[in-house]
Write a structure and sequence with these properties.
Type-I_RE_S_subunit; 465 residues; five-stranded mixed sheet; restriction system; endonuclease activity; alpha+beta
Length: 465
C-alpha cells in the first residue's frame, strides 16, 4: 500500500485470524498481555464512559450534547473505574468491535470488562482488536446461541492467541495509523459536510416550492400561520385531517405466527427519507411494534425520537409491508396527491412544527392525532403535479452527486479498514514511515475546502431567493 513494502521474512502464526506474520514477532495468549481490572467507584461522580463499535471509548457527556441521554441508572456507585490507556470491552458486543483503548479517566458499566496492558503498546492492541478478523475470533470464542446473546467472558478472551511485535514496532505502527486514520477521517468528515450542504440545498428547493409555488410573480397573501408566512393568493391552507386518513390498517393479534412480513423500523429510515433496510420476519419472531400495514403511496412520519426526522413515502406494492407503531401512517384521501404530501411533510417548516410540539427531552415524541391538526399550504392538484415534477428535476442532479460522494466515502472506509489490518498484522512494514509536516498535510485539504465553499455559496443563494 502506497509503496510501503512488506517485511523481508515471514512465518506462519499458526492462528487462523492472523495468518503469516513477520518472522521476529512473537505469539502469546492474551492473558500474558493484559490483566483484568475490577476497581469500583465509591462516589459515582467520575466521568461516565460508553463503548461503541463506531467510536470506541467516549465520554457519555459528549453524546448527551448531541441528543443522547446520560443513563437510566439511579446511581453510578459501583461502576467500574477506567484509567487512561485501559482496554474497555462491551462483552455483549465484542464480536462487532464494541471495544477500545480509553483516552480518558472515568467509570463504565459494571457489565463491561476493563483490562490493563502488562507490556505497554495499548494503542497497537486497540487497533488490532478492532479488525474484522479479530472480531470474528471474538465471536467464535463468545458464549451464546444468537448474536444478541453472545458474551465474551474474560477466560475465553485471555485464552485467545495474539501476535506481539516489539514495543518499538507497536509504537511505530500506532503512530502510522494515528496519522493515516486522522487524515482519512478528516477527508470523510469533509465529504459528509459536503453531503449535508447538498441536502440543505435540496431542502431549500423543496421548502420554496411547497410554500411559494413556481410562479415568481404570483400575488401572495398572508397564510395566517406564523411559520408558513405568505403563500400564493389562490392557495388554501388545510389541516392534515381534511386531506389524509391516519393509521388505517393494523395487523391483527390473530395473524398466523408463520405469516411472513417485511418490516421497516424507525432506525431504518434516515433524515433524507431513504429506507436503508427492510427486514424479513415471521410474525411470531417480529418485534411487538411491527403492526402498521402500509400501502403504495402512504407517507410515514416518526412520532418517537422526532429529532431523527424519519419521514418517507412508501413506494412498494407488496401486501406484507409493515412499519413500526412508532410511525404515523398518512394515506391521501382527496385534494392532495401522495408525492406532494411527501414533500410537504418533509419540508423544514413542517418538521420544525413536529419537533417543537414534541414532549420529552431524551426521547421526544408526539401523538399521531396531534399531527393531523397541523396545517399545510395546498395548491390545486394540477399545481401539485407541476411542483413535484419541478422538485424531482431540480434535485435529481444533487441526488446523483450525493450518491457519488457516498460511494467515495464507502471506498475510503474500506481502504481505512484494510490499511489498519495490513499494518497491525505485519503485512506492511511501516517502521521507516516519516509523518509529513503540518504544512504538507494542509495542502492536501485545499481542494476539499474549495469544493465545500462552492456548495455553501449555492445553498445560500437558494435560501435567499
Amino acid at each position: 500500500m502506497e509503496n510501503i513494502k512488506p517485511y523481508t521474512k515471514y512465518k506462519s502464526s499458526g492462528i487462523s485470524w492472523l495468518g503469516d506474520v513477520p518472522e521476529h514477532w512473537s505469539i502469546k495468549r492474551i492473558k500474558y498481555v493484559f490483566k483484568e481490572q475490577d476497581k469500583r467507584s465509591e462516589i459515582g461522580l467520575e466521568d461516565l464512559l460508553s463503548v461503541s463499535h463506531y467510536t470506541g471509548v467516549t465520554r457519555k457527556s459528549d453524546k448527551v450534547m448531541n441528543g443522547d441521554f446520560m443513563t437510566n441508572a439511579k446511581t453510578l456507585v459501583g461502576y467500574k473505574i477506567v484509567e487512561k490507556g485501559d482496554l474497555v470491552i462491551n462483552i455483549m458486543l465484542a464480536w462487532n468491535g464494541s471495544l477500545g483503548i480509553s483516552k480518558f479517566d472515568g467509570i463504565t458499566s459494571p457489565a463491561y470488562c476493563v483490562y490493563k496492558s502488562l507490556i505497554g503498546g495499548e494503542k497497537y492492541f486497540g487497533y488490532l482488536f478492532r479488525t474484522k478478523n479479530a472480531q470474528q475470533e471474538f465471536k467464535k470464542q463468545s458464549t451464546g446461541i444468537i448474536d444478541s446473546r453472545l458474551r465474551l467472558y474474560t477466560d475465553k478472551f485471555f485464552n485467545i492467541k495474539t501476535v506481539i511485535p516489539s514495543l518499538e514496532e507497536q509504537t511505530a505502527i500506532a503512530k502510522f495509523l494515528d496519522y493515516k486514520t486522522a487524515k482519512i477521517d478528516r477527508f470523510i468528515r469533509k465529504k459528509k459536510q459536503l453531503i449535508k450542504l447538498l441536502n440543505e440545498q435540496k431542502a431549500g428547493i423543496i421548502n420554496h416550492a411547497v410554500t411559494k409555488g413556481l410562479d415568481p410573480i404570483a400575488t401572495m397573501k398572508d397564510s395566517s400561520i406564523e411559520w408558513l408566512g405568505n403563500i400564493p393568493e389562490h392557495w388554501g391552507v388545510k389541516p392534515l385531517r381534511n386531506l389524509v386518513s391516519l393509521n388505517d390498517e393494523t395487523l391483527s393479534e390473530k395473524t398466523s405466527p408463520d405469516y411472513e412480513i417485511r418490516y421497516i423500523d424507525i432506525g431504518n429510515v434516515n433524515s433524507d427519507g431513504v429506507v436503508a433496510e427492510i427486514v424479513n420476519y415471521k410474525f411470531k419472531d417480529a418485534p411487538s411494534r411491527a403492526k402498521r400495514i402500509v400501502k403504495n403511496g402512504d407517507v410515514i412520519i416518526s412520532t418517537v425520537r422526532t429529532y431523527l426526522k424519519a419521514i418517507t413515502q412508501i413506494k412498494n406494492d407488496t401486501d406484507n409491508l409493515i412499519v413500526s407503531t412508532g410511525f404515523a401512517v398518512l394515506r391521501p384521501r382527496k385534494l392532495i396527491i401522495s408525492d406532494f404530501l411527501n414533500f410537504a411533510v418533509r419540508s423544514n417548516y413542517f418538521i420544525e412544527t413536529i419537533c417543537s410540539n414534541s414532549y420529552g427531552v431524551s426521547y421526544p415524541a408526539i401523538n399521531a392525532s396531534q399531527i393531523m391538526h397541523f396545517k399545510i399550504a395546498l395548491p390545486t392538484e394540477n399545481e401539485q403535479t407541476e411542483i413535484v415534477a419541478y422538485i424531482e428535476k431540480e434535485t435529481s442532479q444533487l441526488n446523483q452527486l450525493i450518491q457519488t460522494i457516498e460511494k467515495e466515502i464507502a471506498l475510503t472506509q474500506e481502504y481505512r479498514t484494510a490499511l489498519i489490518a495490513e499494518a497491525v498484522t505485519g503485512k506492511i512494514d511501516v517502521r521507516a514511515f516519516v509523518i509529513p509536516t503540518v504544512s504538507q498535510q494542509e495542502e492536501l485539504y485545499e481542494e476539499i475546502e474549495e469544493e465545500l465553499d462552492m456548495v455553501a455559496e449555492d445553498t445560500e443563494s437558494y435560501e435567499n431567493e
